[in-house]
Design a protein that fits this description.
Length: about 110
């Protein structure tokens, strides 16, 4: 953030649009469905009209920057990586188990009685 205007916009986005909905969560508790609900939540501007997608995308950019900074600062990436690795290992194990079962079924079928 280089300018005072940018700081004011980021602060406004956080104070008025991000924290009222997501401020009660710890950062590591925010899930995809929370973010999706936040993004599609109907909002009215001061005149009662809808905010433009460009405006909501600006709020999203601010939220994304906060989440990325928190991930780096609190080493949440390591936890995310651990989960991803565990899921990959589980999928690999399932594929190997499936191949083994197929091999055993073929072997059983082809084995002379």
């Amino acid at each position: 953030m280089t300018s005072d205007l940018a700081k004011a916009r980021y602060t406004e986005a956080l104070d008025l649009h991000v924290l009222p909905d997501l401020g009660a969560f710890f950062v590591d508790q925010i899930r995809d469905h929370d973010l999706e609900a936040w993004l599609v939540k109907p909002r009215k501007d001061r005149r009662g009209g809808k905010y433009s997608p460009h405006t909501v995308n600006g709020w999203w950019r601010v939220l994304k920057m906060v989440l990325q900074a928190a991930t780096r600062r609190y080493y949440l990436y390591a936890r995310v990586r651990e989960v991803e690795d565990a899921l990959r290992r589980r999928a690999r194990t399932a594929r190997l188990a499936g191949r083994l079962m197929l091999f055993l079924m073929i072997f059983e079928f082809l084995r002379p009685s």
